[in-house]
Amino acid sequence: MVEEQYRFDGMPVEVIRQLGAWGHRVDVVRPGTSLLRLSEVVRAGGHDAWVLKTVSGGPGLALLEAAAAVGLTTVNDARSIRGVRDKVAAAVVGRGRGLPVPETYAVARPELLAELPAAAFPLVVKPAEGSSGRGVRLVRSPDRLAAVSAGLSGEGMLIAQPYIPNSGVDLKVYGVGGELFATERSSPLHPGQPQRERSVPLPAEVARTVAEAGEVYGLDLFGVDVLLGPDGPVIVDVNDFPSFRRVPDAVARVARAVLELARTGGTAPGAAAVGPFPLPEPVSESAPVSVPEPVSLLTSAGVPFRIPATAGEAG
Questions:
Q1: Were both Cys, which of 60, 148, 253, 280 would link to 137 (CB 3.0–4.6 Å)?
Q2: In whole angstroms, how far apart are CA 297 and each of 27, 88, 211?
Q3: Local structure of 95: helix, strand or coil
Q4: Pairing between β-strand 296-299 and β-strand 25-28 as defined by DSSP bridges
Q5: Does the predicted model carry a pTM greater than 0.85?
Q6: 56 vs 87, 126, 152, 233, 290, CA distance in Å?
Q7: What is the C-alpha to C-alpha distance for residues 116 and 107, in angstroms, rounded to an integer?
Q8: How is domain 103-163 classified at the architecture level of CATH?
Q9: Backbone angles phi, psi at 229, to 5 degrees
């Protein structure tokens, strides 16, 4: 299932082409522009897996959940996608399972954050259902809340987290096929710095943290945004089926992972991750690609309250 935003995007378009080139049957559904007869779409074709490249709030996730509800394999698991798309839920689950997720506040309107003490600032505020960096704001002090309120109106529930002092560089770690790959990017919260993006070695401590996040959230194809703060790595966002930018041989790796997940059923939320997450060896673009046996896939492109550290802690 390909959301309209990704209709011409390399991920998943190139993955679809790769699967077809290997001899697999790929049916494409565009939920944003199609009239769908659900009983026929969900059951038609006897697909081995459904794959969704989704946007926050897009129509594809509901259809993916319908497929999962009748026992079909989805990539990622539909419950896991919903769990990380809702950043309120993701913060609760992450902190409750011991991940280094910042203390998180939730509000319906940004001006309500003025009820926090000045010592809680600076804050990073973003939509609870946001994606691709949309609506992320750095609020340095309570008197700056009015300046960001207009830009966040209509975004629904918001979350706010303390700003983590850092070098101005974000670390994006991608998980695919049981391996982790790291990319360094200039932070959008530091617009004055030179813009850059490059592959970098993955520190062992970050690798352990990200592998644990994949297990906790039940994701097989994922990305984790990490900041290297004064006290170690901090998880600031988790994404299902990201862009995999600068991952070596990304298209073939993702395609092989989709086929394997179609056979195994993937990782259920909260279950142990499938195998270890070793640091990857360099892969050349001309590296040979193993072609698995054919399968059939349906692919896609109030007041502030604190998120508690555990489910039983009062907010």
A1: 148
A2: 7, 32, 27
A3: helix
A4: parallel
A5: no
A6: 11, 13, 16, 26, 33
A7: 11
A8: 2-Layer Sandwich (3.30)
A9: -90, 180
